[in-house]
Design brief:
Radius of gyration: 22 Å
Strand content: 25-35%
Number of helices: 2
Strand order of the largest sheet: 1-5-4-3
Structural class: alpha+beta
Number of strands: 6
Shape: globular
């Protein structure tokens, strides 16, 4: 066995372990592909934006989602807090470069809201977004 081959055999496990540990240590956890429901409330809203069957069509990609959410307010003008929970609900879309997309799910709350709500946003297609029940757009 040649020296270079022996060195390679000895270094391979070290390099493989080093790469695996470095990648997991520096890369943030991947978001869940399916969104879980927020803390359940006894009176969860339904309708426009609250369901995968009737999402908010904001268009414009992630920037479009953020722009929409930055203009969304509580009923008395309260600023909303939001966090992307994940993606779900595959669908066909002419607005997607792949011909299909997934809805993004955001957990949204504002001061005075009993419990956070889950809103479904479509970043690929735009259809005059409006505020879901319990919110307004400014």
């Amino acid at each position: 066995m040649t020296t270079s081959r022996l060195v390679m055999l000895l270094l391979m496990p070290v390099l493989a372990t080093g790469c695996a540990s470095t990648a997991s240590a520096t890369r943030p956890a991947e978001p869940a592909t399916e969104a879980a429901a927020p803390e359940a409330t006894s009176r969860a809203p339904s309708g426009y934006g609250y369901s995968e069957d009737d999402p908010i069509h904001v268009g414009g990609g992630v920037d479009g989602e953020h722009e929409y959410l930055q203009h969304l307010r509580g009923p008395q003008g309260q600023k909303v807090r939001y966090e992307r929970r994940g993606s779900c609900c595959a669908f066909e879309s002419e607005g997607s470069p792949f011909g299909a997309g997934m809805l993004d799910v955001y957990i949204v709350s504002y001061e005075g809201l009993e419990a956070p709500v889950m809103l479904y946003l479509n970043m690929y297609d735009r259809k005059d977004p409006r505020a879901p029940e319990g919110f307004r757009l400014d």
